[in-house]
Amino acid sequence: MSVAPLRLAADAHVLVLTGAGVSAESGIPTFRDAGGLWESHPVEQVATPQGFQRDPGLVWRFYSARRRAALACVPNAGHAALVDWERRLGERFLLVTQNVDGLHLRAGNTRVIEIHGSLFRTRCARCDRPSEHDERAYEDGAPACERCAAQGRRALLRPDIVWFGELLDARHLSAIDTFVAAARGKPFVFLAAGTSGAVYPAAGLVDLASDAGAETWLVNAEPAENVGRFAHFLQGPSGTILPALWPVDGR
Ligand code: BV8
User: Fold this and answer.
1) Which of 12, 149, 184, 202 could form a disulfide with 8 if both were Cys (CB 3.0 to 4.6 A apart)?
2) How many CB atoms lie within 10 A of CB 71?
3) Residue to probe by mutation, ligand 1, list 28, 73, 114, 164, most atoms within 8 Å of CB
C-alpha cells in the first residue's frame, strides 16, 4: 500500500498508543489473533487476580515463558520508527503502550508509559516493596516475598502486570492527561498501532485525544473494534507503515 506521509506542523504534539500487533513482526504472539496467547491460555486462569490466587504456579509458568520469548526477540522497523519520532519531537511525543514485552525500551524510546505493566518487573502481591527488574523464570512455583517472610507474613511475588479487573496506575493515567492537556489547542496527532481496540481504558484513549482536538490515525492489520473512532485508518503491517508515515524529509 502507498502511504501518504503525515504532515506535522513545527509545534505538533504526537501521542501514540501501541498494542501487541506492533511486536508481532518481532515474533511475539498477539492475544486475539489466530494462534494468539489467549487461545492457549484462558484469560481467567493467567491474567486475573483470581487466577493468580487459584494457581500462582501456572501464572508464573505462563509469564516465565513470555519473559523467555520476549528476551529472544528484537525490536522491528515499527519500533525503530517510533524511536525516530521521539528523537524529532522530544517532549511533544509520548508513547503509551499496552505491551509488556519491553521492546519499545530496548529499541530506544524513553518517553514510554507501560500502562499494562512489564514482563520484566516483579512485585509483591501483598506489601508495597518497590517493583524490581527481574528476568528470571519461575517454573517450580511462585517465589515468596522475603520482606514479608522476615516479618512473619506469607506472601508471594507476582508479575508487575495489570490484570483484568485491576486498576491501571493512577500516575500513568495522570501523565497521559497532562500530555493531552498540553496538546489541546496545538497541532495534535493521536496514532494507535497494532491494537484490536478491545481493552479499556486503553481503547478509550482515542476519544480522550479526539476531544482535545487530535487528528486520529489507526495503523492496524485489520479494522480494530473501535476503528470508527478514527479519522484515518491505514490497514497493513506496522513494521512497513510506521517507517513510511513520517519520513525524515517529511518534517
Ligand atoms: C480496569 C494482561 C477498572 C497483561 C491485559 C470499561 C472501562 C474500564 C474497564 C472496562 C471497561 N469495560 C470492560 C472493562 C474491564 C476490562 C476490559 O477492558 N475488558 C475487555 C476485554 C472488555 N478492563 C480492565 O479490566 C482493565 N482494568 O479498567 O479496572 C475496572 C475493572 C473492571 C470493570 C470496570 C472497571 C485492565 C486492562 C488490562 C488487562 N491486562 N493483559 C498481559 O498478560 O499482557 S490486556 C491485554 O490485552 C494485553 O495487555 C494487551 O495489551 C491488551 C490489548 O490487546 P492488544 O494489544 O490490542 O492485542 P490484540 O491481540 O487484541 O490485538 C492485536 C492487533 O494487532 C490485532 O487487531 C491485529 O490485527 C493487529 N496486528 C497483528 N499483527 C500486526 C497488527 N497490526 C499491525 N501490524 C502487524 N504486523
Assistant:
1) 12
2) 15
3) 164
Q: Report the atom number in ligand 1 closest to the C-alpha of 18.
A: 56
Q: Are 134 and 243 contacting, i.e. CB atoms less than 8 angstroms apart?
A: no
User: Using CA atoms, how far apart are residues 22 and 96, in angstroms rounded to an integer?
Assistant: 12
Question: Given this model, what pLDDT does residue 183 score?
Answer: 98
Q: Ligand 1 center to residue 151 CA distance, Å?
A: 37
CA dist., res. 5 & res. 250, Å (int) = 7
Q: What is the DSSP letter of 4?
A: P
Query: What share of the chain has pLDDT > 90, as a percent?
Result: 88
33 ligand 1 Cβ < 6 A: yes
**Span 106-144, pLDDT tens digits:** 999 999 999 999 999 999 999 999 999 999 999 999 999
Helix (H, G, I), strand (E, B) or coil at 171: helix
- If we measure between CA atoms, which residue out of 146, 139, 166 comes closest to residue 67? 139
Q: Rounded to an integer, what distance in angstroms lies between the CA atom of residue 236 and that of residue 238?
A: 6
| Cβ atoms 19, 219 nearer than 8 A | no
Q: Ligand 1 atom 73: the closest Cα is on which residue? A: 21
- Dihedral-angle region of residue 217 (phi above 0 means left; psi in -120 to 50 means alpha; beta otherwise): beta
Q: What is the pLDDT of residues 3-52, one digit of tens each?
A: 777 889 999 999 999 999 999 999 998 888 877 777 788 988 999 999 99
* Per-residue pLDDT at 251: 54
* 116 in active site: yes
